[in-house]
Amino acid sequence: MLLEQTQLAPSLAEEILGAARTAARAIPPAFPLDATVAVNPFLGQTDQDLATASARLARLAGAALTRPRAELASMVEAGEIAEEDLEAALLACSAPGRPADLVALRAQLRKPAPAVEALPTIADLAAAATGTDWPAIFSRSFGLWASGFFDRGQALWTPRPDQTAFAAWREWAINDLTPAIAGLRGFSVHVASTPDTAERAILRATSRLGLTAAAAETAFHQLLLSLGGWSMHARWQLWQAELEGRSDTTLTDLLAIRLVWDEALLAHCPSIGRDWRASVAAHAAPVVPTADHVLDCLLQDAAERAHQRMLANKLTGPAEASGRPKLQAAFCIDVRSEVLRRALEGQGEGIETLGFAGFFGLPVAHRPAGTDEVQAHLPALLSPSMTSTSHGKGDEEFALRIAARTKRAWGRFRQAAVSSFAFVEAAGLSYGGKLIGDSLVRTRKAPGQSPLPRIEGVMSADAKAATAAKILRAMSLTERYAPLVLLIGHGAQMTNNPHESAYQCGACCGQTGEVSARLVAAMLNDPETRAGLPGLGLVLPDDTLFVAGLHDTVTDTVTLFPEAVGPKEAEKLDQAEGWLGEAGRMARAERAQRLPGAKADALGRRAADWAEVRPEWGLAGCAAFIAAPGQVTAGRDLAGRAFLHSYDWTQDDGFGTLDLILTAPVVVGSWISLQYYGSTVAPELFGGGNKLIHNVLGGIGVVEGNGGRLRAGLPWQAVHDGERLIHQPLRLSVMIEAPIEAISAVLKKHEGVRQLFDNGWMHLLALSEGRVVARYRSGLAWEPWNGEARRPADAKAAA
Amino acid sequence: MTSLPLTAFAPAVLLLAAFFFLLRQGPRPGRLLLLANMAAAAGLALGLAGVVQLLLAGQQVLSLGGVAILRLNPVSATMILLVSFVGWVVVRYSSRYLDGEQREGRFHGLILAAVASVLVTVQAANLPVLILGFVMIGLLLRQLLLFYPERAEARRAATKFTGVWAAGDVSLVLASAILWITQGTLNFVALGATSELTPVAQLGIGLLVLASVLKTAALPTHGWVTEVMEAPTPVSALLHAGIINSGGVMLIMLAGLVQQSPGAMGVLVAIGGLTALFGALVMLTQSAVKTALAWSTIAQMGFMLLQCGLGLWPLALLHIVAHSLYKAHAFLSSGKAVREVNAIRKPGPVAVPSIAAVTRSFVLGLVLFAGVAAIFSVLGGHKSPQALALGTILVFGVSYLIAQGLADAAPAALTRRTVGASLATTIAYFAFQWVAQALWGSSLPAVPTAGPLEWALIVLAVSSFGLVAFAQALFPLWAHHPTTAGLRVHVANGFYLNALLDRFLGGFQLAHKQ
Predict the structure, then answer these.
(1) Among A205, A348, A690, B89, which is disulfide-ready with A263 (CB 3.0 to 4.6 Å)?
(2) Where does Zn(2+) bind (chain A) (predicted)?
């Protein structure tokens, strides 16, 4: 009988395994916390619109993907969402089940949205039937195994390496008595009888659970979602493997594990069979948004339109620019740069700022001093093509490593079984001093000058010039060079914060921008580079000096890293440092108002305070991405909510740079904005949980409390100040100053990017002469700005 | 004789501050935060003042109606200073960490009151006051564990904690009743002076030991400690630094009495030693930083009970102080774990010592021990077999540090560093031992003369710790062997003791919503 059940027709087996692979792709990757970057939690749903994704995640996790309706309704009440926004959103909405007109919309607005409930899983049904909390027991047992399996150095005794996840788990579960003690008798025997490959285990379980091919995809997706961050971490392993041209089966292994559990629970509790068949039938039905989903998404769209209206009112045409600037400072496009850039530009005539992704276009992997390991310093979408290093001279490097290894040996002494007692007796008292120090010392010392990073290997003069030319063009920095050009990356100093890397530069893969800025500045100052640039059509004045810097986003101070400079350069630098100092003071004053308990002159304390859970707001509030010449946004108060990318389409032959902007920084921007969005509207599903009870696990992530589900995404404290949301969840409004045809041509070329706009994961608006002129509608169509209240006749007919 | 220990005011000051938070239990209590910090600082100042008073004016007792209530002696002064210091750190940390929480004010009030309760227990002059303190701690900690009452895991942890803690209280009440009947007093000084014990009184001591086992989460009652991470981090810091050791403090305060019962001492050695090895072993397998720290606490408390059982009272007190400071810091800074784990990977693979290298390191360690012990014996006088046994156990631990440097792949510079660190550790250990003896030796009973039972326990302890230490040094050679995979599963699950307790207490059932 067993054989009968496990034998599926080959075509059906292929369909089931295909559904498993599709479900795996529906999970977003979660990067480990030592180098984390924002990821779009809806990465697997970008082929659907928000309403459909809402319907899917409501079915699978009981999650809502929009703010509670009451909140949106109160925004309408307060006039934050105006009549015209509602009207425009209603006209733009073509989903079946949308309100017939504004009157109907307003009436529905007042009704509370019905509570969403997920389809019950076998574990849920078994819990209800037996009174035993099977989801919690699974989560605890699985979490204990997974924490060891994915551990990257916390525990001394980890499971033996070099096994697949499924094989490792099988070995674990055959020995683990916990399920049996909890009442699932014979679980170990059951596991021992499962096929020894994940695929066959999936097939056997699918057949025993009576999952049909039609139901499998969302049922699998649901099971993977129930693993929380564990499946997202496994998805990251797949992501990383594919970036390196390999593959990885960990994620489908996890699915197999979950299915083997459900198989055992169904056998343990056969009475739930009927309810489970109902769940299967519901899974087999197509995912269709309800009228409530449609309404909530419409309101969400209206809120975004209100924001766009406000933003458009600020963009009234470019400021005048003439003559040679005194200073050009290029910052990362990160929204946190906007405040400081505005303050710096206000320091006087001739100070210009630029925006560019903080890795400054250099696709580098870096080997810091003291290690052979490389860290990626470029957006997570890209693969590094060169390496750099900060290794010192032989004996310096050796001394550093011996010190690190001694520290590690001491750490193992502290952690190991018998020696931990000796450690406490001999060294425990010294922690009294550390307690005093950490409690009292409240100002972070500025970081010292670290060694200059350098590219590994030899780069020819031609290659240097070509790389430099590419970078300058991508920044639209092709003429009017100032005598001093600063390249300012960013980082955030903080202490005792597991999510530290989430505050670092996203374009540098969760590292600070220092290495990239210094490498690029050195390359642009290199005489060999300079000699080759005119031949590539770029003429730089001899007196133009590039200097790298690092913007600390906690304190808004900028540290410059000048290389050998003469007296004339020193004067320029002094002046620039003066401007930066004053700009920093203004930026602090502005930012401190938003930070609870902050004083503008004491932000340094937040960096050094080990009890600080909100050192700064990161990218909270981000809502817009503007790619246009600097003059378009110069002097406009964008409240630290916009990514600003310098782009001058008139300099962009063949629109190669436009292509780059739409496919790289815009996509990264959408990942960031949607991560904040997901962590805000669905914190249980896509948020990192409560920092106060975080328990760091294996060096890769956090769990809440004792263990269980790994939590990926942003902690609640990163989007909420205790009394109100600091991040207003809005999908990103991308504004690009370029001809509509050129933008359309790029979208036509890149299906994935087009999907993001077509399905409403971002909005796209075109600028001309610094003003919004057109809005992108799906299907490569545009409509004129301000004309949107009048719906095009064709759409009306279709409705 | 009555006098006024200044430290008696410390709990009062904290309780007064806690009272104000009753009025503002919500988020951002404003200036009350300043008040909380000032109260905590005042508590610490009073703790320091107590030390000065003790040095200048000698021991103090606060009596009411002729009954000693609170006392100031070298042991209580140490504990007051420790608790008020940890309290100050925790209150200061919390006032930033909890910022904006829905029930922020309530949290501060509870923490202040909890610190006050611990301060009462550590200076109690008799058993009823001690029990009062324990009951208050139990009630307050329960509320702190339920700071997020919507979390089912938190409710389970609170239930488990309350069960174990209350069982300890009941055991203490019974012990008090027996001692009241047999000894006619519940005053610590008077109890410590008794010499003749009836079998019934022995039972009373047994109940005291049971209470200390429950309060310090020794085997098999340890389960709740690994689950209290459901409360905000400062609660863990306070719990692991100030509360969980109170069972040991109680034993030390009653050392004179407990030592009268060789059976009780033997039980302490057995349970303590077993708990120490068990906890330390499980700790090795835990990948969540706070969970590993919790297992570490279980082990350290077991080790402290072992020290008590050997009659090394000053060392047990030293262990409590050192462990508290270390563990409070470890919890409060546990957010650094991501950075630390990353730093561990940076210098490349760990050099694995061979069996020969490990053997060499043990010989070297014992030589080191013999040398340093001889010097300190000359300085500090004769060492008891118990003290030497404990020293040997610790040196086994130090050998691990040497072994890491003796691995064939380790460069000479690393070897020099680890040997240097080992020497420093050994010297520090003996120096602190000497200081502990000087500070508290006169107010605690001397080590009992080792009889056959004591010798048997000593041999058992030294050999089992030695075996584990040797295995630990060879760890990389066997930890990933397929035959140990099953063992690892059982160890990582803490040999299922907690799961069995869950089953017994209904912890696997669907939690009822509050």
Answers:
(1) A205
(2) 332, 334, 490, 505
Mean pLDDT over A183-198 rounds to 94
pLDDT digits (tens, 9 = 90+) for A292-304: 999 999 999 999 9
- Our CA-based measurement puts residue B275 at a distance from the nearest CA of chain A, in whole angstroms, of 12
Chain B's closest residue to A373, CA to CA, is B346
Distance between CA atoms of residues A517 and A485, nearest Å: 12
Question: What average pLDDT does the segment A9-37 reach?
Answer: 93
Give the burial class of A589: count Cβ atoms within 10 A of its Cβ; 0-12 exposed, 13-18 middle, 19 or more buried: middle
Structure tokens at A288: 């269709």
- A723 at B interface, C-beta within 8 A: yes
Among B125-134, B300-309, B482-491, the range scoring the smallest mean pLDDT is: B482-491
State how far the Cα of A249 lies from the Cα of B198, in Å rounded to an integer. 69
Q: A571: Cβ–Cβ under 8 A, 6 or more apart, which residues? A: none
What's the mean pLDDT when you consider all of chain A? 91
Q: Is A505 annotated as ligand-binding?
A: yes
Cβ–Cβ below 8 Å for B287 and A158? yes
CA gap B14, B84 in Å, rounded: 10
**CA–CA gap between residue A131 and residue A463 (Å, rounded):** 68
Beta-ladder partners of A702: A696, A711
Lowest mean pLDDT among A3-12, A335-344, A434-443: A3-12
Cβ–Cβ gap A405/B151 under 8 Å: no
pLDDT digits 0-9 by tens, A476-523: 899 899 999 999 999 999 999 999 999 999 999 999 999 999 999 999
The DSSP element (H or E) to which B501 belongs, if any, is: helix B497-505
Q: Which of A435, A439, A496 has the CB atom closest to B336's CB atom?
A: A496
Q: Which residue has the tokens 């986003």?
A: A553
A759 within 8 A of A48, measured Cβ to Cβ = yes
Amino acid B2: pLDDT: 59
Q: Please judge whether A132 and B508 are an interchain contact, meaning their C-beta atoms are less than 8 angstroms apart.
A: yes
Confidence tier at A7 by pLDDT (50, 70, 90): low
Inspect the interface and report whether the beta carbons of A420 and B322 lie closer than 8 Å: no
Token pair recorded at residue B499:
């799961």
What is the greatest pairwise CA distance in chain B?
71
Measured between CB atoms, does A699 come within 8 Å of chain B?
A: yes
pLDDT, mean of residues A392-404: 87
Helix, strand or coil, per DSSP, at residue A547: strand
Order of strands, edge to edge, in the sheet holding A701-704?
A694-697, A701-704, A710-711
Contacts of B385 (CB under 8 A, 6+ apart): B450, B454, B455, B458
pLDDT in tens, A163-174: 999 999 999 999
Q: What is the ipTM of this complex?
A: 0.94
Angle (deg, nearest 10), helices A394-415 and B412-440: 40
B47: its two tokens:
């703790």
Contacts with A670 (C-beta within 8 Å, 6 or more apart), sequence order: A40, A732, A756, A761, A762
Using one digit for the tens of pLDDT, what is the confidence trace for B345-394?
888 888 888 888 888 888 888 888 888 878 877 776 677 888 888 888 88
Q: What is the dihedral of CA A446, A450, A452, A455, to 10 degrees?
A: -110
Strands A762-768 and A732-737: parallel
Q: Identify residue A181 by its one-letter amino acid code.
A: I
- Lowest mean pLDDT of A111-115, A335-339, A745-749, B6-10, name the range: A111-115
Rg (CA), chain A: 28
Distances (CA, A) of A624 to A301, B78, B97, B269, B461: 14, 59, 32, 66, 67
- Residues B487/B414, Cβ–Cβ less than 8 Å: no
What whole-number distance in Å separates Cα of residue A229 and Cα of residue A149?
14
A451 to chain B nearest CA, in Å?
18
Please report, as a single letter, which amino acid is at residue A10: P
CB contact (8 A) between residue A416 and residue B343 = no
